[in-house]
Amino acid sequence: KNFQGFPTREDFDIVEYELPALKNGEILVKVEWVSVDPYMRAYSSRYKAPYDQFGFQVGLVEDSKDPRFPVGTRVVSHKGWCDYCVIDTNDTKSEVDKVYKLPNLKGLSNSLGVGAVGMPGSTAYFGFLEICKPKAGETVVVSGAAGAVGSLVGQIAKIKGCRVIGFAGSDDKVKWLEEIGFDKAINYKTADIAAALKEAAPKGVDCYFDNVGGELSSTIINQMNDFGRVSVCGAISSYNENNMPKASILQPALVFHQLKIEGFLVWRWFDRQAEAFTELIKWIQSGQLQPREHITEGFENIPTAFLGMLKGENVGKAVVKL
Amino acid sequence: KNFQGFPTREDFDIVEYELPALKNGEILVKVEWVSVDPYMRAYSSRYKAPYDQFGFQVGLVEDSKDPRFPVGTRVVSHKGWCDYCVIDTNDTKSEVDKVYKLPNLKGLSNSLGVGAVGMPGSTAYFGFLEICKPKAGETVVVSGAAGAVGSLVGQIAKIKGCRVIGFAGSDDKVKWLEEIGFDKAINYKTADIAAALKEAAPKGVDCYFDNVGGELSSTIINQMNDFGRVSVCGAISSYNENNMPKASILQPALVFHQLKIEGFLVWRWFDRQAEAFTELIKWIQSGQLQPREHITEGFENIPTAFLGMLKGENVGKAVVKL
């Protein structure tokens, strides 16, 4: 079903298909890791229900009619929530449909292929660096900071020499963010946000990586310095609302501080994805970047993992192991 | 007094000063034209009352102790609402404090020095062209379209080959905007805004020049095409509110259509002002650009002109003739 308001388990149905015989250019993939992400909620209304739930997955090629993907290859695709799937390797309608080989993770968990070395990793890398263009010494704020993308953005900002403040929704998340190097993390559910941010960022905010939208973002944007940059990655605060929520307007701060706000979809940088993956793997191996995963086990638990992620139960990247 | 809510006549007082003798580097100016603009409302809280009301003016040098500005020169300064003033020509604390010679208007009214060939002109020219970067054939929307800046932006957009839609607050303004070449003008007070815009912009909106902020802007931004650009010049809808108003959030549209929104102050391009003036004068002389002025007469009527402008009574640039 298409979601109305907050999704429920009843919106999902598990269906068994008979897999067809492989045609030329197709591969049979046994899925090992499946991703659950906020954009799945946001994009629901674009499809006519019932539809196969899209999403990234890592899997092992078990049968192949494409010599570029021989049996035993690990691949990343957007084929979604299934335990086996047939992928047409020539399906290149859009970037998101293109199956690609899992990068050489040098011994790291293959699950990173849907996380820190997958779409969320490249989202954090390009969305932050290309749009915020952070300079060493600047103050960076991240909302949704304990999530898959936010936790990477904060750590990348530290690598680039910035002061980093994160907003998250629980004291446990706050504690973890400070452990992995955020200069300060703030529980937006319990803090006086404007005051806490003023204290944490006495020199004001230069860059803001926005995962949430809504009043939290308006408050942060109102504390930005002249020529501040905002990268808008998502608007989690609004995804489960049937009507567009309202928040304090941004225009006065935009004008008086000459701010720039830009939204993006990561596909914009699809042809540079290898560059991001190379850097991210290097940072993870050197210990500068610590990706954390929130792992749920079992195919039948994918919807539960998805609902938990929307409720903010995950710390780090929410993935499901099949 | 500093304004609280909508300004009133009682917030202003007319004071007589004895003008001091000129020192070296000073000029005595007899003021001829005084400007009233929305930013005067917005910036009020930055000053400790009582203060001399700032604002642009055009005047004639009557006495001079600076050979660069001999008697008889016409100058533009930010000395505000006065009938005579002494200007320190070496005051260069900020761009706005720099007095400069009125450009050669080739027979056009000197009042344009505080309008289409002054700060509002350069605001429209740079704020629109540099931030929206419009391309011929694109659809441009302007709010506050019948104001000093908005009416120029729409006409510049037409000169650049765009389709132009303006929002204004009365049927008379709508009529005038269509007379000067807007493809469509819409009365935002009476129209179903989303529907009227959809009809006027069947191919969607590529550029939006935002003078107002608030729900009108949220509605327009929600109808923008992928990679649309928004130039935020002002937020008139909020200036008379004591608390920041709320409106539908922009983040979902920003992300899904990869929009860019940027606020600006015109001083950013101060050193290129001559370029804007040259173009604007050329367009006015060729008849491609029709600047309209809303003239109030008499020094004592400046506050009334200001209040009328804030209420939207002006069509085109509001100026006062002394």
UniProtKB/TrEMBL annotation, chains A, B:
Catalytic reaction(s) noted: an n-alkanal + NADP(+) = an alk-2-enal + NADPH + H(+); decanal + NADP(+) = (2E)-decenal + NADPH + H(+); 20-hydroxy-leukotriene B4 + NADP(+) = 12-oxo-20-hydroxy-leukotriene B4 + NADPH + H(+); nonan-2-one + NADP(+) = (3E)-nonen-2-one + NADPH + H(+)
Residue ranges of every copy of the Enoyl reductase (ER) domain listed in the record: 8-320
Subunit and partners: Monomer or homodimer.
Enzyme Commission (EC) number: 1.3.1.48, 1.3.1.74
SUPFAM superfamilies xrefs: GroES-like (SSF50129), NAD(P)-binding Rossmann-fold domains (SSF51735)
GO BP term, example: prostaglandin metabolic process
Cellular compartments annotated: Cytoplasm
Protein keywords: Acetylation, Cytoplasm, Fatty acid metabolism, Hydroxylation, Lipid metabolism, NADP, Oxidoreductase, Phosphoprotein, Prostaglandin metabolism
Organism from which the protein derives: Agrotis ipsilon (Black cutworm moth)
Gene Ontology terms for molecular function: 15-oxoprostaglandin 13-reductase [NAD(P)+] activity; 2-alkenal reductase [NAD(P)H] activity
Gene3D superfamilies: Medium-chain alcohol dehydrogenases, catalytic domain (3.90.180.10), NAD(P)-binding Rossmann-like Domain (3.40.50.720)
Protein name: Prostaglandin reductase 1
